Amino acid sequence: MPEPVLRPATTSGTPDVVPSHAAAAPAWRRWAGLAQQQGAVVALVVALVFGVARYAAFATPENLLNVLRQNSMVGLLALGMTFVILTGGIDLSVGSLLAVAGVAAASLSARGTVVAALVAIALAALLGLVNGLLIARARLQPFVVTLAMMIAARGAALAYTGESSVSVADTATGLVWLGRGEIGPVPTPVVLLAAAFAIGWLVLRYTAFGRHVYAVGDDPDAARLLGLGTDRVLVATYALSGALAGLGGVVLAARLGAGQPVAGTGWELDAIAAVVVGGTLLTGGVGGAGRTLAGVLLLGIILNLLNLEGTFSPWWQWVIRGAFLLAVVVVQGRAQRTSEGAS
Question: Is residue 304 pLDDT above 70, yes or no?
Answer without folding.
Answer: yes
